[in-house]
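F.,

This is the one I mentioned.
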């Protein structure tokens, strides 16, 4: 069976909204980045990554972000991009046609947003740090649309079963006890964290009721997605020499 190069969100977005998440197959990169790696910062051959990026739909209109697990959102509506420019941000939004909003992930949660009229879009890189610091809220506040008119699609991320965290992270999210389950098999106090659940409740709290996605797991679906935590565990177990992996991209734009 041939694996897909892209996944389209299953959501009722307006017809002029284009959105997709890349998978790890169908590209040019060699192992351990095989093969559709979009990250230039992970040690892959830069020329091969460039070739991979050229395969992306509307790839010529990307503004690639320098993601640092912040809560910063950059508005690309009037953004003047120069060659090699990578804004320091973990989310972006626009109401300019053909301007792509995109984020890269390899376990963190990508969230794509659009309004019901198809006039505004956004992409969010939501790891636990970004979620804690308000990256969703900051992004929605910058969009040219009321939050009640927005719909969201949660793309591929690590599932609760494989995202183990310590009590210090659980304490940060005290308002979301339903997102944590204690790991009784661990010698230390550990919890399994559901970042999909946290993101969903954060969006609902600011008026977003149409929320879709959340059915993938980057850790277990190794044929489809890169996973930083998976290769970290493999390296610790001696299955691979070092924890290196690629990045997928989640993108959205107005046609």
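My design for it:
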């Amino acid at each position: 069976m041939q694996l897909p190069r892209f996944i389209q969100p299953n959501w009722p977005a307006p017809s002029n909204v284009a959105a997709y998440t890349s998978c790890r197959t169908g590209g040019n990169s060699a192992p351990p980045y095989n093969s559709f790696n979009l990250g230039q910062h992970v040690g892959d051959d830069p020329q091969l990554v460039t070739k991979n990026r050229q395969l992306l739909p509307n790839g010529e209109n990307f503004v690639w972000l320098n993601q640092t697990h912040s809560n910063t959102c950059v508005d690309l509506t009037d953004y003047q991009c120069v060659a090699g420019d990578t804004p320091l941000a973990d989310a972006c939004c626009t109401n300019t046609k053909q301007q792509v909003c995109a984020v890269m992930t390899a376990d963190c949660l990508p969230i794509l947003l659009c309004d019901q009229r198809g006039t505004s879009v956004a992409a969010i890189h939501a790891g636990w740090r970004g979620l804690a610091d308000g990256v969703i809220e900051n992004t929605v506040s910058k969009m040219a649309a009321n939050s009640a008119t927005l719909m969201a699609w949660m793309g591929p991320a690590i599932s609760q079963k494989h995202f183990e965290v310590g009590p210090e992270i659980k304490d940060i999210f005290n308002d979301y006890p339903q997102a944590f389950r204690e790991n009784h098999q661990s010698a230390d106090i550990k919890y399994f964290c559901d970042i999909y659940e946290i993101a969903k409740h954060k969006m609902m709290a600011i008026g977003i009721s149409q929320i879709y996605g959340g059915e993938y797991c980057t850790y277990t679906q190794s044929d489809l997605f890169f996973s930083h935590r998976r290769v970290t565990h493999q390296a610790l177990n001696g299955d691979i020499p070092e924890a290196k992996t690629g990045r997928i991209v989640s993108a959205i734009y107005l046609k």
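The longest strand covers residues 109-115.

Talk soon.
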